[in-house]
Design a protein that fits this description.
This protein has a seven-stranded parallel sheet, with helices on both faces. It contains seven helices and nine strands; from the N terminus they run βαβαβαβαβαββαβαβ. Helix content is 45%, strand content 16%.
């Protein structure tokens, strides 16, 4: 059997207050997982948890800035303390602050590195012992780390210098980690979407938003649910199957 539900498993999703994170939490809950919702906007997390629970699922909301290593570690610790396990980690939290390198605000760079890189590292470091334990002791005998990257992690473009840097770094880290833990049945998957209709574009300056609008004019973007569907597909495979890297774009996107 190729497809396996996630009953009796626990999944932690960062950046769960909107967009891909929210859609992923809903989808993993529908597959039977208990879902831990991690983000800074606790009001949104609580509303999402209520939605999940009203559909018969189980959810825990944790207010957390993953860029703070202690907060990230505490979120993982609270998850394991409350549910006794962790089977799936989805590193989705991220910001996109595009613009020229010349005359850039270094604080934007630091924020991107803090959330997109440091946050992913902190969550992964804290979660890994528990994921390895689940892979060894659980009924499914497998655990998953899913790291959200971007086509920006494949193709550098002008105006995206530091965003390119962090996304390329996530790809390199993911592959190294995969080689380290795959023989112990912790699967590491890198998801690289093209343009997706989420709040991410609201992080941009008006000029950067207009440039992005022009770049993708005439292209229907992917939806958050499309990425969630892909993540669900990855983590519900039989343990013999590891999907290590998925590059996905809107069909007309030719770059």
């Amino acid at each position: 059997m190729t497809t396996e539900r996630l009953d009796e498993t626990v999944a932690l999703v960062t950046g769960a207050s909107s967009g891909i994170g929210e859609a992923t939490a809903l989808r993993l809950s529908a597959e039977g997982a208990t879902v831990v919702l991690v983000a800074r906007r606790i009001d949104r997390l609580k509303a999402l948890a209520e939605k999940i629970e009203s559909s018969g699922g189980q959810a825990l909301s944790i207010e957390c800035d993953v860029a703070d290593r202690e907060q990230a570690a505490a979120a993982v610790a609270q998850t394991v303390q409350q549910f006794g396990r962790l089977d799936t980690l989805v590193n989705n939290a991220g910001v996109m602050l595009l613009g020229p390198i010349e005359n850039a605000n270094p604080e934007d760079w630091e924020r991107m590195i803090g959330v997109n890189v440091d946050g992913l590292l902190a969550c992964t470091h804290a979660a890994l012992p528990h994921l390895l334990k689940s892979a060894q002791e659980s009924k499914r005998q497998v655990a998953d780390i899913v790291n959200l990257s971007s086509t920006a992690g494949r193709i550098p473009r002008v105006g995206s210098g530091v965003y390119n840097l962090v996304k390329h770094g996530i790809g390199a880290f993911s592959e190294s980690l995969r080689q380290e833990v795959t023989s112990r049945f912790v699967r590491v998957t890198l998801i690289e979407p093209g343009v997706v209709d989420t709040e991410l574009k609201t992080h941009l300056s008006p000029a950067a938003q207009e440039a992005l609008k022009q770049r993708f004019a005439g292209i229907e973007p992917l939806r958050a649910e499309d990425i969630a569907d892909t993540i669900s597909y990855v983590v519900t495979r039989n343990r013999r199957i590891a999907l290590n890297e998925i590059l996905m774009r809107p069909t007309p996107q030719d770059f």
